Amino acid sequence: MNEKINLLYKMRFMENEGDNIEIFENILNEMSLEGTNDIILDLCTIFEDEVAEPSANDYLIETIFYIAKRNDLEEGLFKLALGTSKMLPHAEFWADRIHRTLLNSKDLLISYGKALEKLEGSTKQTIKEILMVIKDDAPDYI
Fold it and tell me: pLDDT (tens digit, 9 = 90+) per residue, 75-120?
C-alpha cells in the first residue's frame, strides 16, 4: 500500500510525463478494495488545491468513504478527521468539500459526529473552524 500511496502522491498534480488520470483512478480503485482504515490518514496527504485534474480529488474522496464504509465506518471517519489537519493549508478547498459532503449525508453524518466526539485538541479545533466557515457560508447546513 505504501508504494501505491507514494505513487499517488507523486502523480497528484498530473504534471509529470506518465501521469495519467486513468492510472490514478485505477490505483485508487485497487486501494478501495484492499485498503483498511489505516491508509485514510495517508490518503489525506494527497489532496492539493492546485491540481490540473480536480476529478482526481473527487475520486480520492469517494475512495476514502468507500474504505470507511467497507471497514468500520466510525473508525474510518475518525481517521479522516485526524487526516484533515494533514490537508491544511495546501488543500483547504478539499477539506471544506469533504465536510460539506459529510453534512449532506445522513448515513455518514451520524458516524462522523460520533468520531468527532473522540477528537482532542488542535484537530478538534481545526474541524470546528471548517464547520464554522461552512455555517457562515451556508447556514442551512448546520
Answer: 999 999 999 999 999 999 999 999 999 999 999 999 999 999 999 9
- Residues 33, 58: Cα–Cα separation, whole Å: 17
**From the CB of residue 6, how many other CB atoms can be counted at a distance below 10 Å?**
11
Please give the single-letter amino acid code of residue 37: N
Angle at 82 between CA 123 and CA 42, to 5 degrees: 140
Q: Could you tell me if 82 and 43 are in contact, meaning their C-beta atoms sit under 8 angstroms apart? A: no
CA distance linking residue 133 with residue 135, whole number of Å: 5
Residue 44: partners with Cβ closer than 8 Å, 6 or more residues away: 64, 80, 83, 84, 86, 87
pTM of the entire predicted model? 0.94
